[in-house]
Design a protein that fits this description.
By secondary structure, the protein is mainly α. The chain has helices at about 10-20, 25-30, 35-40, 45, 50-60, 90-95. α1 packs antiparallel against α5.
Length: about 100
């Protein structure tokens, strides 16, 4: 993984900021404990701070505690070097989608 980009999920942070921004949950998630406690005490900066954080997360300007930007929408699975990407065979998908016919009475 790139050392200049946070390993935290931008999607998770955005959802936390949207639903629980007034509690600063997204700041706890990225490791900004001090400012997260301030958000709890001020109810998200009276909603203004939480809204600004949400906008910053959505635009990719929000950073974690180490100063690395949250750029990845989903966390990548850690695979060993040289291993093939995980895939589901088409036959498995067909068996999940196609239901057997119900028994006749």
């Amino acid at each position: 993984m790139n050392d200049h980009v946070s390993e935290r999920s931008r999607l998770a942070a955005a959802l936390m900021a949207f639903f629980l921004g007034w509690l600063g949950v997204h700041r706890f998630y990225v490791g900004k404990i001090g400012t997260a406690i301030l958000m709890v005490l001020t109810v998200g900066g009276f909603g203004i701070w939480a809204t600004i954080d949400l906008i910053m997360i959505l635009t990719g300007a929000f950073t974690d505690a180490a100063g690395r930007p949250l750029r990845k929408w989903v966390a990548e699975e850690r695979l060993t070097p040289g291993s093939p990407p995980m895939a589901v065979p088409v036959s498995d998908i067909k068996s999940m989608v196609i239901c057997p016919t119900p028994p006749t009475l």
